[in-house]
Amino acid sequence: MRVYLDLVRLPGVVRITASQLLARFPLGMLSLAVLLHVRELTGSYAVSGLAVACLSVGQAVAMPVTSRLAGRLGIRRTIAALTAANAVALLVLTVTRPGTPGLLALGLAIGLSVPPLMPVVRALYPRLAPQESVGALFALDTSAQELIWILGPVVATTLAATVSTAFPLLVAAAVSLVGTAWFLLSRHVGEVRLERNRSPFGRVLLRPAMRLALAASFGLVASFGALELALVSRFDESGPLAGIAIAVASLGSLVGGIAIGHRRLRRGLLALILLGMAAATAAAALTTALPPFLALMFVAGLGFAPSLAGLYALVSSALASSSQGEGESAEAFGWLNTAGTVGGAVGTAVGGFAGQLVGTLSPVAGAGPFAASTLFVLGAAAVPLLPGFRRAAEA
Hints:
mainly alpha, Growth Hormone, Chain: A, 81% helix, globular, MFS_dom
């Protein structure tokens, strides 16, 4: 734990990390809040699902672009403008009752205007900490962000059930504005300007480390998307148990990130961690007793945060060794955000199809999504074993 104590003593680390996590907290609420509110307005899960899909598409498309703009226009100007636009889009959704095209357009607008806090902050981290501590800072951030996914859905559903379906959207807008203001008013943000990216848009994708990190990140987040669907299917008639199981998996991720995320994960160890996650997920599909099932969920989540932190550190290190790396870093992390967003959507979709396909063949509830989640983790585990991963890690 000493490595984290040393980190929090560094000027600006606590404020930057805490403020950007608060500003990003609404991301844990948005999809579910939009789903519930559009469902309330239209009475249709199909329309509400499409609205959430538009939100995801907008975020996936915009993030590499807006993160690159932060280097061109400045961090404060870019993030402030997008946060304001996002809050306006959320407000419009709460006070109007548009038809289906309007709802889909608003979902897209909300996604397009999500500020690129994650890529910008991860581009800033090498400036806040010495090189040997950057990996630990990535681990601290990646672990702490699990609180977003543990608490966000709970807050969204509780507010929707006790107040109104519009209220979580208003809370998301308010929290985003407060957290972003806290972040942007930090002296350390004001003193730093990201180097302008002079490479052609998307050029960073040609880097081997970047492509490998994208592939592994996609598989990891897709596995979690399929796993969430598996848990909903397993506990369809059991009230809050699905949420509890998801929270336990996220808690495992938080613990794993704090425990080993600061260490340099060599490719063999990274692959072993991911294989352990796959084995736990597969075993959970066959486990019916609740205590061992929750224990397996904890293990299934254990490697999530440290694996992502290791991939972020890999990309950061690869960019640091290049003359154009500093300018490309924000866009690179924007692409990683896109890989995660697309991975989550694909994982949920594939898990749904797998559930339909396997549901009639297997007596185990959620067997199809569990299988899909396992396969996605195995795909992620194969990435560190590729010969190019060693070369990228040593570059």
